[in-house]
Amino acid sequence: MKKRFPAVLTAAVLLLSMTGCGGEEAALQEGVRDTNPDKGLAVMGNHVTYDPNHLVNGGEPVTLDWWLWDAPDLFGSIAREYQEMHPNVTIRIINNPWDGYWTKLPLALQKEEKGPTLFNVHNSYQHLILPYMAPYEIPMEDLTADYFTAASHEIDGAIYYTDFGVMTGAIYYNKDMWEAAGLTDEDIPETWEEFREIAKQLTIWEDGKLVQAGFNYNGEMHTLLLGLPYQLGDTLFLEDGKTADLTSDGMVWAVQMLKDMYDTDRIGDKDFGTDSSQSFGQGQSAMVYKWGHFYGYMGTNYPDIRYGTFEIPTAEPDPFAYDRYNGEATPGINKNASPEQLEAAQDFIRFYLANTRVQKELCMYYSLFPANNQLREDEALQENPAIHAVSEHIEDYIWPGAMPSTMEENLKIAGQDILYNNKDIRKTLQTTEDIVNVDLANTDFTSSEHLYDKYGE
Amino acid sequence: MLKRRPLQSRSEVILRNIVVIFLTVYMTIFLLVPIVMAFAGSFHLWNPLNGTYEWIGLDNYIRMFRYPTFWTAMSNTLIFCAVVVTFRVVLGLSLAYAIVSRLTVHKTFFRTVFYMPTVTPLVAVAFVWKIMYNPQFGLIDQILGLDINWLYDSVFALPAVMVMTVWKDFGYAVILFMSGLLSVPSDYYEASNIDGANAWQTFRYITLPMIRPTMVFVVITSLISYLQAYVPVMVMTEGGPGTATYLSSYLVYDQAFVKYNFGYASAIAFFILILTAVLTALSFKVTGERG
């Protein structure tokens, strides 16, 4: 027996290592049975309404897993509010890091019922998860009446997710530098021509060395390029919605203007740091172009910097669109969840969408312009500079659709090639367009540009 | 010829069988099956995350050869490998030779210091070097009195990544070469001394031939590992500026895990596999050794 012991021990170790982390998960904590349909609570919502006074799943316990990549406390508080109304429903918040989320989630959903019942969605990954999603059981007309971007998410007459808020770009400026240059609110520029003149006043060179950039777009060139061509009426995709058009006059104009800002105006420099966010936070750059989440970034990392915001300048008054926007999406529902889970998930989504307080909290947290029409004039939201800057013309921002990453990735490469490697603008854009179109041919992407009100004008 | 010792007990036989079965199963599941799946996938439009798996024949390979970034990445990879392997070998051998020299004191100290970068996590090292290369507050520009945006300059970006890689990895070569140098019998050196050989002749005709197996090992393992390098690029440059620092393995990562073109990424991976095999065979041939 003694001689056999090492072999048995080795076998046990090897077998255990092969089974990895297998084993039973901890028993699910399930809700209690609910027998009281009358909660004594008011009906919520305007067109999308939610009446809490009913039993979910006949009051029998049911557990929903809700996957997300961010803000577990915020989403957890929403889940708790729902569970207080329906104590038989248990919602387990499972937070995954963003990096692994989009690999793990589709694979988990392939396990059908074993996958999460609810999961947060980012529209750029729609192509990966749409096959596993159940449509919302809410009439389309109610959704579009309450949520101004809902129509853009319609797929074959159904909605699988919509936006709870939208985010876009704005100019952030350092108030101390602005005042030091003798500028006031009256000087807020509306055109790029005015903007470049203001930026010159904010730029400081000392002994041939840039010490304060008037405008710094390092690391953001591709973000600007994905929006600026719209100002001249040029879309990112041709009419078929499947072919990228990155050589339009609007795109060439945008690239040339950005390059001229550094090369001719000398209001910034490609070598003045590699990250415009950091540069603005460190008080080295007077103006930067950033999307709404920059508000949170500044609050977390550089709370002492005094800054304001204004809307992105335009090439000419009344542009086709000021910029593009992107939405932050409502949760998706796993179509292969059990009937009990599906019923509870659909009920939860209705609660989520009808509850304006929840919607407001989400928009405050992420600095988003609210997609819910009832919150448009909300004072607390309007106080957020990221939201305030874009609120006046929000209808004049366009959503290109859930773009595959190839667009952003390759425009980033093109921007660097033009800025740092001094490559020819038109040739570089042509090469980029060719590469992107090969990639797009292998996807089922179709642009949503045609849904924009001014499209075709 | 050594005579094989028979297994002495039933326990030994069981242990051997368990280990062999475990390794066979392990290698099959985690190596052979993925390789076969990737090879099959290279002929498909393949995205395992949304279930796409459509036969497209050689399209991925045709697309690969027509894709300009692929050639940029391949040429960068070959330059990267050639330079980094050369520096690793030259620096490693020189320092090992210096350490084993009778003139050097505190050998353990130097051996430890040179080996320290090797045991430091690569991602952490890459981040530190990225900060050192910063054009505004980076140590390198300040020490050298230069104003170069190292990682955003198409001339300097790839060399900057190479310098970091050499610094990180030369210590491993030092240790290997030291063991090779110490295994050379002292009789040879005494004989060469009696014959009146100078230092260079001793090194050229005794040391180098005697440490050739170590040299081959260092070159081959370095080559294989640098053909797969992508972490320094991912952390320091993300392939930029433009595609100036794209390496072939970074391209595979980019296509598979950023753009989800798993079939296309598999085609590139197979090309790298063939290239690795060819370069390894070439290295054996050049150094006059056979497996």
C-alpha Rg of chain B (nearest Å): 24 Å
Report the total helices of chain B: 13
The CATH architecture of the largest domain in chain B: Orthogonal Bundle
CA-CA gap between termini of chain A: 88 Å
**How many H/I helical runs of chain A?**
17
Q: How many beta strands in the DSSP annotation of chain B?
A: 2
CATH topology of the largest domain in chain A: D-Maltodextrin-Binding Protein, domain 2
In CATH terms, the superfamily of the largest domain in chain A is Periplasmic binding protein-like II
* Helix/strand class of chain B: mainly alpha
Question: Strand tally of chain A, please?
Answer: 15
Distance between the termini of chain B: 19 Å
Question: Of all protein chain pairs, which has the greatest interface, and how many residues does each chain bring to it?
Answer: A-B, 42 and 41 residues
Level of helix content of chain B? over 70%
If you consult CATH, what is the topology of the largest domain in chain B? Answer: MetI-like fold
Percentage of residues in DSSP E strands of chain B: under 5%
Strand content of chain A: 5-15%
Mean pLDDT of chain A: 91
| Overall morphology of chain B | globular
